[in-house]
Specification:
This protein is α+β, with helices and mostly antiparallel strands and about 180 residues long. The protein has one domain (about 10-135): 3-Layer(aba) Sandwich (Aminopeptidase), CATH 3.40.630.30. About 35% of the residues lie in helices and about 30% in strands. The chain contains six helices and eight strands. The protein has helices spanning about 25-30, 35, 45-65, 95, 115-130, 145-155, and strands at about 10, 15, 70-75, 80-85, 100-105, 135-140, 155-165, 165-175. Strands 1-2-3-4-5 form a five-stranded antiparallel beta sheet, sandwiched between helices. It has a three-stranded antiparallel beta sheet with strand order 6-8-7, covered by helices on one side. A hairpin with a 2-residue loop joins strand 7 (about 155-165) and strand 8. Helix 1 packs across helix 3. The radius of gyration is 15 Å and the shape is globular. The two termini are about 25 Å apart.
C-alpha cells in the first residue's frame, strides 16, 4: 500500500517535508521566478497551474508511495523549493519512462549553496531504501550547467538526448551503487 504522505527527512541544513495547502503561494513564487523558469520553457507558470502542481505533488505520494518534498532551510524555516522522485510519463522512451524521475527546483535564494545536492542525496537514499530501485533518471536543459553538475555529483551520467515540449534535453541515469 502506498505511503499517503511524504515522510519528514532532516539533513544538516534542510528539512524535507510533505507539501501542504499553505505552500501554494510559495509554489507560485517559485514557478513565476524568471531565474527558475528560464530552464523550464521560459514562461512563468499561472497560479492555477501552480495549484494543480501542488495537488499533483500530494497525489504522487497517495498513488505511488513516493514523490516530491517541500524543502525548507532548518535555520530559518524558509521554503526554498521542491525535490524528489516521481513518475513523469513524459514519452521519452522506455529507458527513461520506466524509471522514477528525479527532480529538483529551488528559488534563487537557495542556488549556489549545495542545497539541491544535499536534499536530493537524502531523497535518493530514502527512495533506494524504501523502494529498492535499480536506477533513476532525470532530464536537464543542456544550458543549465549548475543542475548538470548537481546531477553528476549525485551519480547521474548522460546516456542520451531527448526532446520534450519542443526543447532538447540531456537525459541522465543513475544506477544504484
Amino acid at each position: 500500500m502506498p505511503i499517503r504522505s511524504a515522510p519528514e527527512i532532516r539533513t544538516e541544513r534542510l528539512r524535507l517535508r510533505p507539501h501542504r495547502r499553505d505552500d501554494a503561494a510559495d509554489i507560485v513564487k517559485l514557478w513565476q521566478d524568471p531565474a527558475v523558469v528560464h530552464h523550464f520553457g521560459g514562461q512563468p507558470v499561472a497560479a492555477e497551474d501552480c495549484w494543480n502542481r501542488l495537488l499533483r505533488y500530494v497525489g504522487h505520494w497517495a498513488v505511488n508511495g513516493y514523490g516530491l518534498w517541500a524543502v525548507e532551510e532548518l535555520e530559518t524555516g524558509r521554503f526554498i523549493g521542491d525535490v524528489g522522485l516521481f513518475e513523469g510519463r513524459r514519452g521519452l522512451g522506455e529507458r527513461f519512462d520506466s524509471a522514477p524521475e528525479a527532480g529538483w527546483v529551488l528559488l534563487p535564494a537557495g542556488h549556489g549553496k549545495g542545497y539541491a545536492r544535499e536534499a536530493m542525496n537524502a531523497a535518493l537514499r530514502w527512495g533506494e531504501s524504501e523502494h529498492r530501485w535499480p536506477r533513476t533518471v532525470c532530464m536537464i536543459d543542456p544550458e543549465n550547467l549548475p543542475s548538470i553538475r548537481t546531477a553528476q555529483a549525485l551519480g547521474y551520467a548522460e546516456y542520451g538526448r531527448g526532446s520534450y515540449r519542443g526543447k532538447e534535453l540531456v537525459l541522465l541515469e543513475r544506477t544504484k551503487p
